[in-house]
Amino acid sequence: MKKFSITVTVALIGAIFLGAAAFAATTFVTIGSGGVGGTYYPLGGAMAEVLSQADIGVKATSRSTSASRENCRLVAKNTVQIGMSMGSTLYQAAFGVEAFEQDGKLPLNILMNMYPAPQHLVTTSKTGIKSLEDLKGKRVSVGAPGGGDQVLTMLILKEAGIDPDKDISKQQLTQPEGVMALKDGNVDAVFWNFAAPGASVLEVAAQRDVVLVPLPQDVVDRVVANNPFLVPHKITKDTYPGMAEDVLTVADGNYLVVRNDMDEKLAYDLVKTLVENREKFLQITPQAENFVPEKASIGIIDFHPGAVKYFEEQGVSMKK
């Protein structure tokens, strides 16, 4: 009986050590996503689930944030290991300019390009707003303080000659806050950036006559010329209820970013797993159709060496 007891004790100790070793071998990864109502939030959750279920030794969770600007800073501090960011914000963070002038250049690399997302300028029929110029004197949400929506909004207003601190009654609302304010008439227009169709626009459209305001061609031309990470884009008339014609705007890329000193094998495993599970992400957003090596490898700053290794294995020449 004593011999049996010793054997059981040894087995239990062995199991504890094996469990501890497995725990130590697990890499914990947090994904900085975005607020409820945009594409980042559900996509971040799906990515965390896919990474955790893959046989790569990763346990991932998703964290709701105010999106791009906050995510770049969180990744730089290693508070989160993967961040979702719009290209306009990432570009500023990498070069330490504009919104990141006080931060300096952040140590960021691209893991993969996710998809392009158009900037939405949304109002309702009762406001009478039909053009960018009509925003003057109105209550306008330029986006949440920590988000990329606001960065891109400021670039557009600058090229349009509209001073957000003088020409409009500037509001800084998150996407859920913007939805409620627009439905309740507490704001006249909102700027949002997400893949189309966006859930926030559809939620407002369920109760109000939504109007998407086009950007003037000359403003689009200047924004794109001065910001090489942006492209002209048209939101097609079949995207949202009540649209009579296509709406001209600009589109920003959306990227997964990591610290430039992330372990190369980890970065390789992360991007390989995400790209090769594209079908699962299509259940979250049709924009996941862009999760292919040829598109995921197009960037605006350097890719992480682990990502470069994966894409080159797929026969893709890296682009920037």
Q: Indicate the overall shape.
A: globular
Low-confidence residue ranges: none
End-to-end distance: 70 Å
Helix content: 25-40%
Q: Strand count, sense and closure of the main sheet?
A: 10 strands, mixed
The arrangement of helices and strands along the chain is HEHEHEHEEHEHEHEHEEHHHH
Strand content is 15-25%
E-strand count: 10
Number of helices: 12
As a whole number of angstroms, the C-alpha radius of gyration is 22 Å
What is this entry, summarized?
39% of the residues lie in helices and 21% in strands. It has helices at 2-25, 40-53, 68-76, 87-95, 148-160, 175-184, 199-205, 217-226, 264-275, 278-281, 293-296, 305-313, and strands spanning 27-32, 58-63, 82-86, 108-124, 139-141, 169-171, 189-193, 210-212, 230-235, 247-259.
Structure description:
This protein is of the alpha/beta class and 320 residues long. It is built from 12 helices and 10 strands. The protein has helices at 2-25, 40-53, 68-76, 87-95, 148-160, 175-184, 199-205, 217-226, 264-275, 278-281, 293-296, 305-313, and strands spanning 27-32, 58-63, 82-86, 108-124, 139-141, 169-171, 189-193, 210-212, 230-235, 247-259. Strands 1, 2, 3, 4, 5, 6, 7, 8, 9 and 10 form a 10-stranded mixed sheet that branches. Strand 5 (139-141), helix 5 and strand 6 (169-171) form a beta-alpha-beta unit. The radius of gyration is 22 Å and the shape is globular. The termini are far apart.
